[in-house]
Write a structure and sequence with these properties.
Helix 7 crosses helix 14, helix 11 runs antiparallel to helix 13 and helix 17 crosses helix 18. With 726 residues, this protein is mainly alpha-helical. The strands form two sheets. A four-stranded mixed beta sheet has the order 4-1-5-6, with helices on both faces. The chain contains 21 helices and six strands. Strand 2 and strand 3 form a beta hairpin. It is rod-shaped and about 210 Å long.
């Protein structure tokens, strides 16, 4: 066994005697420390210095007017940026920003357009527009800075959108409060309308009953007038005969004298009946005139009711349209944000606005039914008014005829009285009697004509009364519809008012609508420092690079003992490479932990894992260089390049090209990076040990391959030195 370390001892003695080799050894041992230390320190916390990154801000917003108040969202946004220290904000003109981007003085530019406030306040308009902020990154100058500034600007944009949403929500909820108050007043008015419609219905029923009684009385009067007309016709025929038979009358005066007393008595009764008929017709005309005046007032009231309901229907349509627009605005706001649309409070608000729109639509429908009923009522009133007017006209004609009849009766009675008083002279005045009979015949003709007119008036009275009764029935039906519609209207309005009143415009509700979903970050697996996240990649890279540099300074095959070969030479090289790897790992770990101050989950395991990773890379490099020498170093360089791309040290495995993903599980740097992440950040030591096992597997495989090279070269050398048998 001691003979096995003979070559290593000789190489070590040679090394200690050569100062240049010692200096070279020490220089190579700090290569990973220099490589990894500067890379990690240079990328220690770049995101903590974003306040040094100049970003231009251009505010072109001209402001706008919203709900009668001036607003300038761009100016408010600039004020917020001035209090924000995320970047080095430079508030410049559009020209200065353009020149700064071209000359690479600014890494990005944020431009607030001139119509920003106008678009921001257009949510409640017919054509809402998105309020855009123009972001331009100077990725030509530095790609990473462009990505960082873009992500930070998105966060600012989200905060600005939240502020705008809060303003919109506050405005809409205040409108809901006013809408609830208005709906309550409308519900009270609809209730009053219902009470009035019920009273109208009852009054119309009573009016219809009385008018039916009037129609029946008018029919009886018309029948009596027909009998009177027949009597007048017979009287007219008799008087005609009397006039034509004046001479016969003169010759039969004696007989007439006996009957004159009875004729005078009949004339007195006829005069009394005519007076009573005139008084009755006069009373009927006064009643008809009163009925006509009352119906004129009723018709005027119906017209006013129709006008009021027309205005109410227009207001209901306006309310329905406004409620529909409000529901559409809320739905659009929700649709613009998926989180906002999934929130229960927003869904409740949207359902309430849709219920208001439905109630407003029902209100409009009820108002239309009321308007239809009112128009039906007005038509009936017009019919009643027309019938009453006809009735009054007929009564006037009838009264005129009755007056004529009374005059004629008075003349008849006077004539009979004179005849009774002067009957002796009547005999001698037969000729005068003939003339009087002719006059009486003319008066009888007028009486017949007056009775005919009175009959026509009675017929008009009956027809008008019938029309009045029909119109009163329609009035009762319309009033019933008005009562039913107004009751449903009052109930719907009260329900809508109650639903809208349940929406409270407090700050908690407004903030809930503006930000319905909040993300609660779980920082258990968060790497807070960029250096901790990138260190596994840089440490692996540094150790691999240190291993490659070492093979350029020290031979992987030769020894100070020129006769050395086989296992002793292999052991000497293995120990030499192992000592260098150990030195590099310990120096690198110490500087990273105590000079740079990198925080890890376990210091002992960090040292141990760094040593194992150093051994892995060193023995992999040793194998290739031992077998192939300079071509082997080229292969190691290619291997390093492949590992830098395929190990997922910067971008996730899933974002790598297909060929890189295929190489990932076969390369040792993949497992060194995973294990470093466990010991530096996550503290998942079980997973770290599984990665350490894979690295140990690489160590064993490549140490065996290196030993195989020395075993084969010894065999070849022994065969060459073996004497040739003759």
């Amino acid at each position: 066994m001691a003979n096995s370390f003979r070559v290593f001892k000789k190489d070590l003695g040679y090394f200690l005697k050569n100062r240049m080799l010692i200096i070279t050894f020490l220089g190579v041992s700090i290569v990973p420390m220099l490589y990894g230390g500067f890379l990690i320190k240079g990328n220690w916390d770049p995101y903590g210095k974003l306040q040094n990154l100049p970003v231009a801000v251009v505010n072109l917003d001209k402001g706008a007017e919203y709900q009668g108040k001036a607003m300038n969202v761009g100016e408010d946004f600039v004020k917020e940026l001035k209090e924000n220290e995320t970047f080095d904000w430079r508030f410049v003109s559009e020209q200065a920003a353009r020149e700064g981007m071209v000359s690479n003085r600014y890494y990005a530019t944020i431009t607030i357009p001139d119509n920003f406030s106008e678009n921001a306040s257009s949510l409640t308009s017919d054509t809402p527009q998105k309020a855009d902020i123009i972001f331009e990154s100077n990725s030509f100058y530095n790609f990473i800075s462009g990505q960082i500034s873009e992500n930070a600007t998105k966060e600012l944009r989200n905060r600005l959108s939240q502020n705008l949403t809060e303003a919109y929500s506050r405005s809409m909820l205040s409108q809901f409060s006013e809408l609830s108050s208005g709906l309550s007043r409308l519900a009270a008015g609809a209730s009053d309308l219902h009470d009035g419609a019920v009273q109208l219905k009852n009054g119309a029923g009573t009016l219809s009953s009385k008018l039916q009684e009037l129609s029946g009385g008018a029919a009886k009067l018309n029948a009596s007038i027909g009998q009177l007309e027949n009597g007048a016709s017979e009287l007219n025929a008799g008087l005609s005969k009397l006039s034509s038979s004046a001479e016969t009358l003169s010759s039969g005066a004696s007989q007439l004298g006996a009957a004159s007393t009875q004729l005078k008595q009949g004339a007195d009764k006829l005069a009394d009946g005519s007076g009573q008929l005139k008084d009755g017709i006069q009373s009927a005309k006064s009643g008809a005139d009163d009925l006509y005046a009352g119906l004129q007032q009723s018709a005027a009231g119906s017209k006013q009711l129709e006008s009021g309901l027309t205005a109410s229907a227009a207001a209901s349509n306006t309310l329905a349209d406004g409620s529909a627009q409000l529901a559409a605005g809320l739905k659009q706001l929700a649709d613009s944000n998926a989180d906002l649309a999934a929130d229960p409070a927003v869904q409740k608000l949207l359902a309430a606005s849709q219920a208001v729109a439905a109630g407003a639509k029902e209100l409009s429908k009820g108002q239309q039914e009321l308007l239809t009923g009112s128009r039906t009522l007005n038509a009936g009133q017009q019919k009643l008014l027309a019938g009453s007017k006809q009735l009054s006209a007929g009564q006037s004609k009838l009264l005129q005829s009755a007056s004529q009849l009374a005059t004629a009766q008075d003349q008849l009675r006077d004539g009979l009285t004179q005849m009774a008083a002067k009957f002796p002279a009547f005999v001698s005045g037969g000729k005068q009697l003939g003339q009087g009979a002719a006059q009486l015949a003319q008066g009888s003709e007028k009486l017949k004509s007056g009775i005919s007119q009175f009959k026509a008036g009675g017929a008009s009275l009956a027809s008008g009364a019938s029309q009045l009764a029909s119109g009163a029935g329609e009035l009762a039906t319309g009033a019933d519809k008005v009562a039913a519609g107004s009751k449903q209207l009052a109930d719907n309005l009260a329900s809508a008012a109650e639903q809208t009143a349940s929406l409270k415009a407090d700050e908690k509700t407004i903030q809930m609508i503006a930000e319905p979903v909040t993300i609660v970050a779980n920082d258990d697996r968060k790497v807070r420092l960029y250096a901790n996240g990138i260190a596994p990649y840089f440490l692996s890279m540094a150790l691999f690079a240190g291993s490659l540099v070492f093979t350029t300074m020290f031979s992987a095959r030769r020894s100070a003992d020129e006769e050395a070969d086989g296992f002793p030479l292999f052991l000497s090289k293995l120990l030499t490479f192992g000592v260098m790897s150990l030195a590099q790992s310990l120096i690198l770990s110490t500087v990273i932990l105590y000079v740079l101050g990198l925080k890890v989950q376990s210091v002992p395991l960090f040292y141990l894992y760094t040593v194992l990773t150093g051994f892995t890379f060193m023995f992999v490099v040793q194998t290739f260089v031992t077998w192939l020498d300079n071509p082997g170093r080229f292969i190691v360089l290619l291997l390093m390049i492949f590992q830098l791309v395929s190990s997922a040290g910067t971008f996730p495995y899933e974002l790598l090209p297909g060929w890189a993903q295929a190489m990932n599980p076969w390369l040792p740097m993949t497992y060194s990076i995973r294990g470093y992440r466990d010991v530096i950040s996550s503290g998942d030591f079980a997973h770290m040990w599984s990665q350490a096992g894979r690295l140990a597997f690489y160590v064993v495989i490549f140490v065996l391959l290196t030993s195989l090279y020395f075993a084969l070269t010894k065999k070849q050398r022994d065969e060459q030195q073996m004497p040739v048998k003759i």
